[in-house]
From TrEMBL:
Residues 301-469 form the Beta-galactosidase domain. The keyword Transmembrane does not apply. One of its GO terms (molecular function) is beta-galactosidase activity. It comes from Streptomyces justiciae. It comes from the Bacteria. This is beta-galactosidase. Its EC number is 3.2.1.23. Belongs to the glycosyl hydrolase 35 family.
């Protein structure tokens, strides 16, 4: 992945690489210790140790117990991974790939199904998440909103808030009463995990971004009153530059969670780990930068100097300096469409630096590497550690790039080439080492003497090889591991280093560590090893990998049609009367008509049904149904059980992709044979998708969803309406799981359903042609071996000319919506824990078709997204 200017800014933020902050960035006097904190070792990885810790900041970095911390947080959304045991998997991967913190967003709508009702158990157990973060050695940046954005329904506001008085994100007392209640519940949990009290690792608390200064002041006071004493990050403040997070794990926008603008359930754009917890193209630059910030203290205190001009002006070169150590950093960007190779004489780099199109390099000069000084390098320094009897520096970059590293040596050193690729020459106090990156995987050069009594080991790696290098801090000293696809944990005991982690293929194992380490175990099994020429433990045999995991074919399907609500004799007596005259919605209530907005009657998520009793309707010629939905909403109508037709909102284009509320009027002609009737039953199904967010603080989340008004042509009938949405909030899966389809209300999506004779056996593909909903169910068993982490998805394929969409239910969990004729296509990730990887599973598909084409499903199959030997212990949800 090229590290473009935009990507680099996203990954590093401004101050993560020390870009000097201007304005009011100052020290928090009560907790920072000395006013001037020099460059030095970072604090040890955080633990819930019971000790009091001080947390502050200046314009360079955070300060923990008087030590500089270059905060490098990866963002993940708790609500996008509804499998608590997988939280540990993701957090361990974050720490291994260089992150030292996790930014966790906590969504109000995920925890609150109704006013005054809050649930922090099961998949919503925030306390467990914070404990797990501490166990994995990660700081926490907490983001509880109240408004999040985060591309979720209503920006994180609960559905019930759309039907309440008070303007959101202001000091309106009605809104504040609700928001304060939410914060009280979240803060009570957060206060038990504050780094300052030694009870956890919550290091920062981020307030929402809002334009109302008085509202932000209220949030500040509320959070402090609730006992939160860590620094508060306020948008546009100096502190908020200090922890601009990279999206580390995207996750799944399952159920009715996604914002209306999201086209897929996958939330992987720019994420280092994909929806299936697998590496993405973004991981390599994240890994390199994270390890650099974690192991080189100079990067926590950088000032910006005058930018440099490159020869020909083809590269942008930003110049940064650490005034304590006089080390220099150059952020070199190529925003052109062609690769550039040029020396940077004003940076003291006299040999060509290769920067590919759209790429960025972070280069260092005059940087202390233990007892030696790096004069310059044309490859990026990835990490520097002191392990046992030597120092180790790793330089990395794109495959095939020629790296040159120049080290100052007042005397001629003893340089030993331990692999075939590197070459070196000593001339006039400088040792010049060159190496093509990645050609022989990891390349090694050992430098001894030459003015320092401590050996320096230079390692050269391309992106792929760099992803197999794992630095780790232990109480006894630093450890560096090379080989496995993931190292989760490193423990030293007596003369043995105990490693846990994952492998995907046959791989070697090499470990550098403190003196006295003579043995190594991998996932609790001894590994035969020898001492190498670089003082590492080198495994005598490769570690085993993990081959493909066989998956069963999906067959044995059973089918059942629904939507009895469209029939005129359907009993709707238990439905809610649409009799309200006023609404708190931003959508006006049509004069002379009742409120039809679904939220006003307590139906906030998924589909909603309407049934209208129409009288005095003789000579009725047409019906016009105005409705309001999120992106790609639709409406279906029946009159006296006869389909009138389907209306769909248009597929967004580039100009309307961020539009959150869509409105339209669907007009249907009444069939001639029905026009003589004086009474009718008008049935309407609205798939309203999601609520708009409130990014502009204009209550846009309160825009109506569902029918908004109804008009007739040819007659002036009277109408009385009833409506029905989701029948109940699932106590395990939460309010965002269920909608208002008949099958959902009857439990057809649940694994414990007893399929009676009403379900007919069928084979796929299907070629039904009807307007409405048809359900398909099957079961399957998996037998993934213990100790294997298999990420599995569900793939649906069909001719895009067939118009239908599918709600996917795995073991009762709504995993998202597939739109066959609109795309985009991708496997739907089935998170382990919800998916029983060793046991029985039920799969239900609710197919909604408009009757204009034959409707599926056609090809439905399980897909292996990745597998490794290792993983974490998974608990069934």
């Amino acid at each position: 992945m090229e590290l473009s200017r935009r990507t680099f800014s996203t990954l590093a933020g401004t101050a993560a690489l020390g870009f000097a902050l201007t304005g009011s960035g100052g020290v928090l006097p009560s907790r920072t210790g000395p006013r001037v904190v020099p460059t030095g070792p970072p604090p040890a990885p955080p633990v819930a140790d019971g000790a009091v810790h001080t947390v502050g900041h200046d314009r360079y970095s955070l300060l923990v117990d008087g030590r500089r911390l270059a905060l490098w947080p990866g963002e993940m959304h708790l609500f996008r991974l509804p499998s608590p045991s997988l939280w540990r998997d993701v957090l361990e991967k974050l720490r291994a790939h260089g992150y030292n913190a996790v930014t966790v967003s906590v969504a109000w709508n995920y925890h609150s199904p109704a006013p005054g009702s809050y649930d922090f158990t099961g998949v919503r157990d925030l306390d467990r998440f914070l404990r797990t973060a501490a166990d994995t050695g990660l700081y926490v940046v907490l983001r509880p909103g109240p408004h999040l954005g985060a591309d979720i329904d209503a920006g994180g506001f609960p559905g019930w808030l759309t039907a309440t008085a008070g303007r959101a994100r202001t000091t309106d007392p009605t809104y504040l009463a609700h928001a304060d209640e939410w914060l009280t519940r979240v803060n009570a949990i957060a206060a038990r995990h504050l780094c300052t009290r030694g009870r956890g690792t919550v290091l920062l608390y981020e307030l929402e971004k809002a334009p109302d200064a008085a509202y932000l002041s209220h949030l500040r006071q509320k959070v402090r009153a609730d006992g939160i004493d860590v620094p508060l990050s306020v948008p546009r403040s100096p502190l908020s530059g200090l922890h601009h997070p990279a999206m580390a794990f995207g996750g799944t926008s399952w159920g009715w969670l996604p914002a209306p603008q999201l086209a897929t359930t996958a939330y992987d754009s720019g994420a280092a780990l994909g929806e299936g917890r697998q590496p993405t193209a973004a991981l390599a630059p994240v890994h390199r930068l994270g390890q650099l910030l974690r192991t080189v203290p100079d990067f926590a205190k950088l000032d910006r100097k005058t930018d440099l001009a490159s020869p020909g002006g083809r590269l942008d070169v930003e110049h940064l300096v650490n005034r304590d150590t006089d080390s220099q950093t150059y952020v070199v960007r190529n925003d052109s469409a062609e690769a550039v190779s040029t020396p940077l004489p004003r940076a003291g780099i006299e040999v060509p630096v290769n920067v590919r199109a759209g790429d960025t390099k972070v280069l260092s000069s005059q940087l202390k590497l233990g007892g030696r000084t790096l004069k310059y390098a044309t490859a990026q320094l990835m990490l520097f550690v002191s392990a046992g009897r030597q120092d180790i520096a790793v330089f990395s970059g794109r495959y095939g790039d020629m790296a040159q590293v120049v080290v100052e040596c007042p005397e001629e050193p003893t340089a030993t080439r331990l692999d075939a690729e590197p070459a070196w020459i000593y001339d006039r106090g400088l040792l010049r080492v060159t190496c093509p990156l990645g050609v022989g995987e990891l390349a090694r050069v050992k430098v001894e003497n030459g003015g320092s009594d401590r050996p320096l080991l230079l390692l050269f790696a391309d992106d792929t090889t760099a992803l197999r290098l794992w630095p780790y801090e232990t109480p006894s000293g630093s450890v560096l591991v090379y080989g496995p696809s993931l190292v989760r944990d490193v423990r030293l005991k007596d003369d043995t280093v105990h490693l846990t982690g994952d492998t995907t293929k046959l791989t070697g194992l090499e470990v550098w560590g403190p003196r006295g380490i003579e043995q190594v175990t991998w996932n609790k099994r001894p590994v035969a090893s020898r001492i190498s020429a670089t003082f590492s433990l080198l495994a005598l045999k490769p570690l085993p990998g993990q081959g493909p995991v066989p998956l069963p074919a999906l067959d044995g399907w059973r089918r059942r049609a629904e939507n009895p609500e469209s029939e005129p004799d359907f009993d709707d007596s238990a439905w809610v009367n649409a009799d309200k005259k006023t609404s708190f919605s931003t959508t006006p209530v049509p004069e002379g008509q009742p409120v039809l907005f679904a939220d006003d009657y307590g139906f906030h998520y998924g589909d909603v049904w309407y049934r209208g009793r129409v009288t005095d309707a003789e000579d009725l010629a047409s019906v016009s149904l105005a409705y309001s939905t999120g992106t790609q909403g639709l409406l279906m109508a029946w009159l006296d059980g006869k389909p009138l037709g389907t209306h769909r909102m248009p597929v967004p284009d580039a100009g309307s992709a961020r539009k959150g509320t869509w409105t339209a009027t669907a007009t249907f002609d009444v069939p001639e044979k029905l026009r003589t009737r004086d009474e009718h039953v008008l049935s309407v199904l609205v798939r309203r998708m999601a609520h708009d967010g409130d990014d502009t603080s204009l209550d846009t989340h309160k825009a109506a969803r569902g029918l908004t008004s109804v008009s007739f042509k040819g007659a002036s009938p009277k109408v009385s309406w009833r409506l029905q949405g989701a029948a109940f909030t699932d106590p395990v899966r939460g309010p965002l799981n269920n909608g208002g389809l008949y099958g959902e209300r009857e439990g057809w999506h649940l694994p414990e359903l007893d399929e009676a004779d009403d379900w007919e056996g069928v084979k796929l593909p299907r070629a039904d042609r009807r307007q409405g909903v048809t359900w398909y169910r099957t079961g399957f068993r998996l037998a993934v071996p213990t100790g294997v982490d298999a990420s599995i998805g569900l793939t649906l394929d069909d001719d895009p000319k067939r118009a239908y969409r599918v709600q996917i239910f795995l073991n009762g969990w709504n995993m998202g919506q597939y739109v066959n004729d609109a795309g985009p296509r991708h496997p739907f990730v089935l998170p382990n824990g919800i998916l029983r990887t060793r046991g029985s599973n039920s799969l239900a598909l609710a197919v909604l078709s408009d009757g204009t084409t034959e409707a599926g499903p056609k090809d439905v199959r399980l897909t292996l997204l990745g597998a490794s030997a290792g993983g974490v212990t998974v608990e069934n949800v």
